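Shipment paperwork, digital attachment
Item: protein structure file
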Amino acid sequence: MVVILQPNIFKNKTILITGAASGIGRGLAIHAASEKMNIILMDIDKKGLKETQSLIHNSSSLALKCDVSNFKELSQCKDQIIEHYGTVHFLFNNAGIFLEGRSWKVDNQNWKRIIDVNVMSIVYGLNLFVDEMIASNERCHIVNTSSMAGLIVGPAFSPYTATKHAVVGLTRSLYEDLKNEYPKIGVSVLCPGLVKTNIMKRDKSGLNLDNSVIDQHETATLNKEWLGEGVKDGMDPIDLAKIVFDKINKNEFWILTHPEFLEVYKEYSNELILSETATLN
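Attachment content:
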């Protein structure tokens, strides 16, 4: 029997991970180190960045404190990245924040902040790095972190749900834009369920949300508490990272890590199908 060895698409390649100071970003960094990649860690949390970097001390890495929702800051960081490593082959737009609230009870400034972090940081990352990926003519890949909240909807999570749906739409559009003309650039959207992260913590540096105007309605408060408890017992980010890298290796668009949510998604999808069927009839 002839065994065909698949080329290692990760070894000695450069990966950029935003939101790398903790949680999913840290898990991705640890796995990237096991793949012998050059790792760029980016986050607004300097202390967390140092902690992540200490966990991958045997790897080539660069830690950059950066507010990725600020295009100027991100552009300046790109100059340092080019100087150290050149082309970014694997771009993980992973930074994100959480905010609960009913649709009409979210303060305008808080809306702006969550859109800037959860959506515009991805836009900026694409604007800055995709052209260089194309020019490299190498196998590259982009992963944008959404959530199961980007596929299904619950009450009083409006800001988070809206931005995560936007990430799914943006990422699918990117996939369609690249797949035929630039097939060497893979694209995936990561839609995890409950993962052990600190996304629910409001005392993180640089969050810049106005806590005084956050919706205190019972539904918003209870759902936030439910989510907070779920996150505590969520999937280990290192286990999630293994799934993500396997999906990248297979060049799959959808990265769904929590099958227990699929039944909810099926119900959501069936609602759309039944509505269309009723219209036709």
